[in-house]
Amino acid sequence: MKFLTVFALLLALVVPTVQAESRDREKPIEIQADHFFGDELKQVATYTGSVRVDQGTMRLTGQKLVLQETAQGYKKGTLTGELATFRQKRDPKTKGIEEWVSGKAEQIVYEERTGIITLTGKALVERSENGVVKDRARGNKIVYDTIRSRTIIQGSEGGRASTVIAPRSSTR
User: Fold this and answer.
1) Within a domain: residue 172?
2) Which domain holds residue 72?
3) Is 150 exposed, middle or buried (0-12, 13-18, 19+ CB in 10 A)?
4) Tell me: the pLDDT tens digits for 8-64?
5) Is the pTM here over 0.70, yes or no?
6) Does the CA dihedral 143-79-98-122 come out positive or negative?
7) Distance (Å, rounded) from C-alpha 73 to C-alpha 123?
8) Tens digit of pLDDT for each residue in 68-126?
9) Nearest of 66, 58, 74 to residue 107 by alpha carbon
10) Whether the Cβ atoms of residue 101 and residue 119 lie closer than 8 Å to each other
């Protein structure tokens, strides 16, 4: 089992890096939902029903969002649903190619301070170019670092992580 964990970590290193749009962190976080309950003393807000979170090009969706604010003023959101989703545009690297990273899982945790998105339960992350999926990662838990361009995949209940990596294009 230890070998499988090490193998999954090594495999994650060969998945092409996924760098989020750097300007997104400077944008306000906008949240829409059917219902809101805020507790100012505990610095916790709960949104339920068709939750949608937007920050620049990043969008997260789910059925319930619990948003906490740390003493330093950073936000940490836990989004759940049948399958919660996220999508974010990558910084452009090649002219004429628009890249996006998207994912879904039973639970998605976004930490504003670190830029880390953790997907847990039936986790899937995909990278697309001009609308065509090029790379895909599956596992029980995927940690996606939007700042440092790192992805770590933990295997599913069977102990396996799965990735599909597109062949190198001759036009690049």
Assistant:
1) no
2) 2-164
3) middle
4) 333 333 333 344 556 777 888 899 999 999 999 999 999 999 999 998 998 999 999
5) yes
6) positive
7) 29
8) 998 888 989 999 998 999 998 887 878 888 999 899 999 999 998 898 999 999 999 99
9) 66
10) no
Look at residue 170 and tell me if it is in a domain.
no
- Tokens, residue 125: 């992350």
Whether the CA torsion 124, 89, 11, 144 is positive or negative: it is negative
User: Is 169 part of any domain?
Assistant: no
Rounded alpha-carbon distances, angstroms, from residue 4 to 78, 140, 150: 28, 13, 19
| Element holding 11 (H helix, E strand) | helix 2-14
Report the relative pairing of strands 75-89 and 44-55 from DSSP bridges.
unpaired
Six-digit token string for 159: 């102990």
Rounded Cα distance, 67 and 65, in Å: 6
For residue 123, the cross-strand partners are 139
Specify the number of domains making up the chain: 1
